[in-house]
Amino acid sequence: MAWRQSAGTVYYKDYFMKALLESLAPGEKDWELAQAIDPSRLPAHIAIIMDGNGRWANRRRLPRVAGHKAGVGPVRSTVETCARLGVKVLTLYAFSMENWKRPRAEVDTLWRLLRFYLRKELPELQKNDIRLQAIGRLGALPPEVRRELLEAVEATSHNRGLLVNLAINYSGRTEIADAVNAILEAARTEGRLSTLRVDERLISANLYTAACPEPDLLIRTSGEMRISNFLLWQIAYAELYVTDTLWPDFTRSSLLTAVLEYQKRDRRYGGLSSAPLNGSNSKAPEELLAAFPSR
Questions:
Q1: What percentage of the chain exceeds 90 in pLDDT?
Q2: Among candidate residues 109, 108, 106, 160, the one with its CA nearest the CA of residue 131
Q3: Which of 99, 169, 239, 285 has its CA 20 to 30 A from that of 10?
Q4: What is the mean pLDDT of residues 66-79?
Q5: Is residue 11 part of a domain?
Q6: Helix (H) or strand (E) run with residue 277 in it
Q7: Which residue of the set 14, 30, 38, 51 is catalytic?
């Protein structure tokens, strides 16, 4: 699937920006933030590391599970805002493979919250044409959790709006390993193992997110300066945005602020800026070389 900018894409984004603005009251903070966003430069794919639930609860002298429960609201708000904004893909880091190390009671609570979210939000996902997808090693999930998750994925499979990837029992390193193993298995089955040549394109085509554009914007809440084994291959050129806001306090304003910060960035992909920065020298390389005395 190609994800390229076109006149039709701009129209699509203008349409959704209008939908977002119509849901806001003129003059309020979110309306002002939305007005400042350039619809032609929206990130196609936003990925979020939803961190800080435990700290949110600890600061209020509540059990950690209270933080996880409080984190459900921001998920709903973020999905809704991305859909109205015209973002193509939203990937949420819901449960890492390392999270199994947490206390059993906390892990069980996370599964109950996931099932609650799926049941409660499925009608809204359908109403808003949102498609749900799950990425990670889903076979290790408790049977009832996996069943309800896959049922929700199937129920929304024909929707064509925002795609929401839930990263569950996910590890970036494991995803790359799974991709390489899938490549090797296919080559072995087809009898071409001896001539197999693995390149970046082939690995990308076998990732869990193969049908998605790579993330343009990676948001991490709670102020931690690390990637936490999330989408390691895909975020090679993503813009990183870290906020001290804990996930349960992440609001629509928080998301719009992150998008505005993203639009200030000069995305060069290893090349040069399209316009010289203030104070930079715009002379051609040969002119710069000529300025140095020869030996």
A1: 81
A2: 160
A3: 239
A4: 97
A5: no
A6: none
A7: 51
Helices and strands (H and E) in the chain: how many: 11, 6
Q: Reply yes or no on whether 99 is catalytic.
A: yes
Q: Which residues of 151-166 are buried (b: 16+ CB within 10 A; e: fewer)?
A: ebbeebeebebbbbbb
* pLDDT tier, 14 (very low <50, low <70, confident <90, very high otherwise): low
110 within 8 A of 182, measured Cβ to Cβ: no
Residue 231 is assigned to a structural domain of this protein: yes
Range of the domain at 141: 40-170+215-265
Q: What pLDDT, in 10s, does the model give residues 85-96?
A: 999 999 999 999
Tally the domains of the chain: 1
**Does 229 reside within a domain?**
yes
Does the pLDDT value for residue 283 go beyond 70? no
Domain assignment present for residue 219? The answer is yes
> 71-105 burial, b if ≥16 CB within 10 A, otherwise e?
bbebbebbbbbbbbbbbbbbbbbbbbbeeeeeeee
- In this prediction, residue 22 carries a pLDDT of 86
Per-residue pLDDT band for 12 (boundaries 50, 70, 90) equals low
Residues 187 and 184: their CA atoms lie apart, in Å, by 5
CB atoms within 10 A of CB 233: 16
> Of these residues, 14, 58, 99, 129, which one is catalytic?
99
51 is catalytic: yes
